[in-house]
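[SOLVED] Need 3D model of a two-part complex

Original post:
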Amino acid sequence: MVMDITFKDVGYTYQVGTPFESRALHEINLTLRDHAFTAIIGHTGSGKSTLVQHLNALLKPTSGTVTIGDRVITPETNNKNLKPIRQKVGMVFQFPESQLFEETVAKDIAFGPMNFGVSEEESLKRAKEMVQLVGLKDAVLERSPFDLSGGQMRRVAIAGVLAMKPEVLILDEPTAGLDPEGRRDIMGMVQRLHQENQLTVILITHLMEDVANYADQVVVMENGGVVKVGTPREVFSNVQWLRDKQLGVPETAAFADQLIKKGFQFKQMPLTETELADELLPQLPQAGRNDNVE
Amino acid sequence: MAKIIDVTNLNYRYPQQTEHPALKDVNFSVDQGEWVAIIGHNGSGKSTLAKSIDGLLPIGEGDSGTIKVGGITLTEDSVWDIRKKIGMVFQNPDNQFVGATVEDDVAFGLENHGMPREEMVTRVHEALKRVRMLEFAKREPARLSGGQKQRVAIAGVIAQQPDIIILDEATSMLDPEGRVEVLEIVRKLKEEENMTVLSITHDIDETENANRIIVLDDGQLQESGTPEKIFAYGNRLIAMGLDVPYAERLRTALRKRGTIVPAQYLNEEGMVDWLWTSHLKM
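Solution:
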């Protein structure tokens, strides 16, 4: 089945009819395509988290409709029949390792599928597969999740979501608090899941480098609305617009922008240092080829 | 300049892991008013070193070395005097609050020292002003953003008027705005109050603010130098728990393509100037 997710005129208001009523989303029209890698960016409080909680029906819209695959969710949808959606759309929350609780890694990963009615035997088999999928060794299965490093614990938590065999994987700041090497490892793993396991990935992030390196679509949110949708190159080409919105700018785009002001010209906005170096080459004096450097 | 922290021949093992030392023969000192960043991959001993300076580690047989803070040697008797000189801010902004309001929280440490109420009120006011959180004095800490929470934690530290502030990955859980806010406050404290700063970090921007970077690996001090010197290590920085600065990544990419690049590390501004000057020679 095609797992496109479509928002039509979606609005969401917290605590309707109370003095604390607050509108978090309004007039959202958006399609997240099957098998795409979409990044959602925007300030803290722009509505990113509220938006993604609609993707697996943790929240129902207070107006409009959300279509997830063949399921249409409206404000009137009965909460009872939402479980199959939550199996298809896996959600990795921020600092997911804080939700680990079982005595062994294997049991922790198997908990999710068992909760969805999968047998214990099958769930433990899946735990073994998932541990490999997230790049950990079999030996961790019988260890306590609390004896692992921060980066390893986070992988176990992600494995627990993957064990439900979702088609869509939502990750909310999956690398927050990790060191640069840990960040790189986790993002490499997410890219592999996207490319090799055909997962649809939706990434909430503040790290524009990750958006530039991995995403094929970017959704920019502000004050509960979507203000721009495009490829990373489309969104990041207008550095001034990003600055006006006080959003981050990928390092390469920020650097290229300074060079453009000095009179350099680029065919398109470079997004990585290799793209920038390629474009700079004809604009700089050359030495003889130097093939000995690393 | 006066040495405010002086560590000599420090060796440490955690009680549960006696076969593998956490710190091996570490020697270093920090001048009054200096900002020193400590880097290293996870498990390299960074946090152990910071905790040892604050006397937070249980000392066992076989542990050795001397730690002097402000000229006082750390012993069981002097530990409380030394802790008064040092304020620590930890990684998780949610684990550091005890008060029901922001001002109660900042006052907590002072109440513990039995300070008269009047002086306490002044100190809390000043500390919150310094971190630009005065208007939040009556708020609940839980409702603040991550960056605001860390600023309140810093206010709690500076209300005690320490000479040294230790940041143990204090910006790593914050969003980019929060990180900028916190670093700006710390930079001001250093410049205006001559505060000594020791920051344990993986963040390249945080290390760029430092006067000196110390690299730990496997409990040993590997390197010590200015950010310019350390940043020139290029890809080796990743093993040290840091990212490679952008200008350095671009320098490497250009060199691989046969361009003659400057021999030493340039910061971004230097790199832009160098590219522009080269471009004009075309």
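Edit: The longest helix of chain B spans residues 176-193.
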